[in-house]
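Q: My labmate handed me this sequence with no annotations at all. I'd like to see what the chain might look like in three dimensions before we decide whether it's worth expressing. Could you predict it?
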Amino acid sequence: MVTITENAKTQLAALLASKNAPEGSGLRLGVERGGCAGLAYTMRIATPEENDHIIDLNGTRFFIAHDSTDFLKGCTVDFTDDLNDRGFKIFNPNASRSCGCGTSFEPAEEGKKPEYDPSLDGTNCK
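A: Here is what I predict for the chain of 126 residues:
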């Protein structure tokens, strides 16, 4: 369903330890309306909610919000530590367009090829 990189797993384990997160906590991933491309990714340290999909990697846990599974199916979660951008990133093959900063996307329509939209170059991201 969702692929978690080894780097994302390692970074989440370190984050949970540094925050003294309660037992059973993990990174909860979801999608909500918003962002400059229509839908925005959400991520927060939490415990699982009812009907969440749980990915347990030797005690490091990621939760996929039940109402977001269709949008996140086939995604890869990674952690990047670039010069000007650090954090968890979702690489979504289901997005027809993504905002330049990678925090929002427009889902692809069935049978349509993703297109580049210069208005989503990252300058309007919040």
